[in-house]
Amino acid sequence: MTVEDALIKYYGGRPQYSGGQLYKIGEKRVQYSCGKIYKVGDDRIDFSCGKLYKVGGNTVRYSGNDIYEIGGIRIR
Hints:
Blueprint: H1 3-11, E1 15-18, E2 21-25, E3 28-33, E4 36-40, E5 43-48, E6 51-55, E7 58-63, E8 66-70, E9 73-74
Antiparallel strand pairs: 1-2, 2-3, 3-4, 4-5, 5-6, 6-7, 7-8, 8-9
């Protein structure tokens, strides 16, 4: 599962794309910095060692290399 797929599932909105890049999830705008997702709405997206680390202050848990849970919401 990609970071985009996990965020779409976490926020639960309909994804909208512009130019092949994720533009909105529901009513929340997706912003990029250096080719990576930086913000969704007002929530900051943090990466550590190339992996998704936090979403709006909520810690991301992994099962192996797959995203398992974000802030208590099961993704996988």
